[in-house]
Amino acid sequence: MAEYLSNVAEQLGNGEHVTGPAAGRLIAAARAATASFGGIYLSPKDAAALLAEPAFQVHDNPQALLTCNYDPSKALCDPERRNGQRPRRGQPSLDRCDVACANIARTDTHIDLARHEAGNRQTLIANPLTPQPLHRLANITHADRIFILDRGALVEAGTHAELMAAGGIYSQLFTLQAAGYQSSPA
């Protein structure tokens, strides 16, 4: 936590910006932590003081591309809070970050990483070899080969005609879906 706050303070000093509902709290925490603990070896007593200070409850979440400035009363990640109970003290549930949470702040670094990730996904989506999700199986009857996966395992492969003749999962799904598009007699 101290190292992250020190890094944020350095980034701010280099002109980086912070956005989000908790941007002001992140900036204040980075400056205060640097003033109080910057450049010194933290003794166990100093580390305990840092961890006990509510303003310094700052947790980087690189998977979600954000920083959590944990305030239990505002934490949407807290399951007790969602159930109308009193919020718990302690650590945030970083695997439950909610984009609407008032504890979120993003640095320019987070934004740059998000843009990079979005670019990677756009490239992947634009690749003609990327499998496309299907809403109508009739749209793929012309495909050279159709692969059917069940829980990640290949269970059927072939042309539309071959899969229909086999009477497996594809045939069942195709027939069921086609029946939904048949007009019912008046």
Q: How would you describe this structure to a colleague?
A:
The chain folds into 2 domains: 2-124, no CATH class; 137-181, no CATH class. It is 42% helix and 13% strand. The chain is elongated. Strands 1-4-3-2 form a 4-stranded antiparallel β-sheet. It has a two-stranded antiparallel sheet with strand order 5-6. The protein has 186 residues and is α+β, with helices and mostly antiparallel strands. The protein has helices spanning 2-13, 23-37, 44-52, 79-82, 108-126, 160-166, 169-181, and strands spanning 18-19, 58-61, 66-69, 104-107, 146-150, 153-158.
Secondary-structure topology with pairs:
Blueprint: H1 2-13, E1 18-19, H2 23-37, H3 44-52, E2 58-61, E3 66-69, H4 79-82, E4 104-107, H5 108-126, E5 146-150, E6 153-158, H6 160-166, H7 169-181
Antiparallel strand pairs: 1-4, 2-3, 3-4, 5-6
